[in-house]
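Input sequence (332 aa), recorded before submission:
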Amino acid sequence: MNEHDSRNIAAKRQLKPFPYSPMAEKPDALDLLNLRFRWGGYAFHVLRCHLTTFPPGKTIRFHKHSEYEFHFIPRGKGTVILGKEAYALQEGLFYLTGPGVLHQQEADPFEPMDELCLHIEVSPLDASMLAGVESWERQEAEACMRALDRLPLRPLSDTGNAMAWFLTAYRAWQDNQPGYLTSIKHAIIQILLRSARGGGQERAEEVELPTRDMTAYRFRLASRYIRDNYASPMTLQDVADRLHISGRQLQRVFRDYGSGSFRSYLENYRLSQVCAALEEGRGPIEQIAAEHGFQNGNYLYYVFRKKFGMTPTEYKRRAAQRRMAADPERRE
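Predicted structure, token format:
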């Protein structure tokens, strides 16, 4: 290849849009973060995550790592030797070296080769550190790591478009918006997941999907709605409509999980809040009734006496006596 041909190659590189060119502005931006995070049953430490360019003919001689190193080729061409086998590299390919894979990389003699590199340390977490980690998350992370360990030792087509997530991570750092480190973490996980899907492997192994007891779930939603809105007028059908079920279904939900009817649950919660207001001595009885969902003071007197065997006024007086007894300075 003569000098004229070399100029043509360089000109074509300049003319063709390169989506990862922003990463060349500060190549070590993500490397300097020293990012560590957990996913499933693993701890991850990002050692390098950057765009680099091999000049024509540049060779990185045989070496290996004890960590995982992902190599993506977004532009250019070259050669990689994995073990004893040499493979051609071109745009759109990726390969995984490590742990412990001896390899040598070389750019084409006449054309630069760009590489997106993710060098990451992965360590299993101790069982004592898994408390609170959802089982589905552990299963997905485990399945991902198994798939990565099974990847063929050769360049593969980036069918999952994992390399696009390098730019996502860089943009998150560049924009520096709240939560950018979380965005980078998610981008790194996407690189791992999408790489694991590559190479024309069979469909990923099934992960046990999380399930929920729908009756218990509806009870939690209904009881939360009651707690948030108990002071306003509320009917069984109002809450059922919020849950997109019938009133009859909601009534069964409360019988199964609320130890009674919807009406009794609502009334008991309102009374518990009335008691708290009475113990704190907040306002007259009529005001307390209005602020806690009762039509008037007379109705509050009726249900309160039926529930506690005393009137709200008597409950308030006894609460005041208890406060006085607990605070000797007030008695003086």
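Checked by second reader. The chain has a mean pLDDT of 90.
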